[in-house]
Design brief:
The protein has 345 residues and is α/β, with parallel strands linked by helices. It contains 16 helices and six strands. The chain is globular, with a radius of gyration of 23 Å.
């Protein structure tokens, strides 16, 4: 497997992939479009699905009933271990994909595939292509090399050229039903029902996220998310209930130490705020069901309107940080808004 600029972006995750029916149908006919566009929110398994699709197309063993590859043959093992010469992966560098990356791809695919029946080029975060890179890719898609197909992944289509969109067959990834995720965790992975329920609720419809949360699927992220969730919820509850303002400063600094974990950390905060609202009306619908006692203690005297304002402000925090605002200072300003006024007097 050949990587361009970010060698850890295409590592294959074996568990938790269910091919969309569109792809299953393509496997049956082997009439593969020149380009596929996977569209959907992060953590819905777009990259994992692309790699599973590549394995299924090139599998030399006996495929499973669900259309997936055997994962035991030489070809499958090469893709799983990121050693296949005909699986080429590209990802943004500093949030951009430049023309040099696309040119490097073209240099690799001018010749016939080394050994694959179907060579795959996977471009992650395709909306990050600058205009020059987009135009260079468009030229390749107009005259694709032999036995080569492209998969582009994106969260949204409005960042791609209409001419690129017109040359791609779109596959939409939607969040999975929470009950289905919980069922898979219990039935297929032996997770107890309580943990499965928490993981499914926290996953936001992503089976991959639930599998990582429970530790079933490992990735380069070695974070103990259950422990981080426990720590974050406890700290935020303490802050809301009237902790010393210095706690907000310490918490912001702690979060700032691992900026790569910011997305998941903010998701934990939002899930707790959501629970504070839902808890007033239906305790069975809360996400963090193992924190009911803490929710009872935290919720006392706080209006629904105030909690909803925190959720809105949290979304603003995400936008500010994406626009390159300083993480620590932005979080400090937000966390101070959670402290009761009496503590700031």
């Amino acid at each position: 497997m050949q990587f361009h600029d970010q060698p850890d972006t295409c590592l294959s995750i074996k568990g938790g992939v269910n091919l969309p029916q569109d792809l299953v149908a393509l496997l049956a006919t082997l009439k593969i479009p020149n380009a596929l566009l996977f569209v959907g929110n992060p953590d819905l398994g777009k990259v994992e699905t692309a790699l599973a699709f590549a394995r299924a197309l090139n599998c030399q063993g006996e495929k499973r009933n669900d259309g997936l590859a055997c994962d035991q043959c030489r070809s499958c093992k090469k893709i799983l271990s990121s050693m296949h010469p005909d699986i080429i992966c590209v990802a943004p560098v500093k949030e951009r994909i430049k023309i040099s990356q696309i040119r490097e791809i073209y240099g690799q695919i001018k010749a016939k595939p080394h050994e694959a029946k179907f060579r795959m080029v996977l471009i992650q975060g395709a909306e990050a292509m600058n205009p020059e890179a987009s135009n260079a890719l468009l030229k390749i898609l107009e005259e694709p090399p032999e036995r080569t197909f492209f998969i582009l992944t994106t969260e949204r289509t409005d960042g791609l050229l209409p001419t690129i969109l017109s040359r791609c067959r779109q596959v939409t990834f939607s969040p999975m039903d929470q009950g289905k995720i919980e069922q898979i965790l219990v039935r297929d992975h032996g997770i107890d029902t309580t943990t499965a329920g928490i993981a499914a609720s926290w996953s936001q419809g992503s089976l991959q996220k639930a599998l990582k949360f429970t530790g079933i699927v490992k990735s380069d992220d070695t974070t103990d998310w259950p422990e981080r969730r426990r720590w974050m919820i406890t700290a935020i509850s303490t802050l809301i209930r009237g902790a010393n303002p210095g706690v907000a400063l310490l918490l912001a600094e702690k979060i700032n130490q691992n900026p790569e974990l910011l997305g998941g950390t903010l998701a934990i905060l939002e899930s707790f705020f959501r629970d504070m609202v839902v808890f007033k009306y239906n305790t069975e619908k809360i996400i963090n069901s193992d924190f009911q006692t803490l929710l009872t203690e935290t919720d006392s005297g706080i209006s629904t309107q105030r909690v909803l304002s925190w959720i809105t402000e949290l979304h603003h925090v995400e936008k500010k940080i994406k626009a390159n605002a300083g993480i620590r200072l932005t979080l400090e300003a937000f966390l101070f808004k959670l402290i009761p006024a009496r503590q700031l007097a």
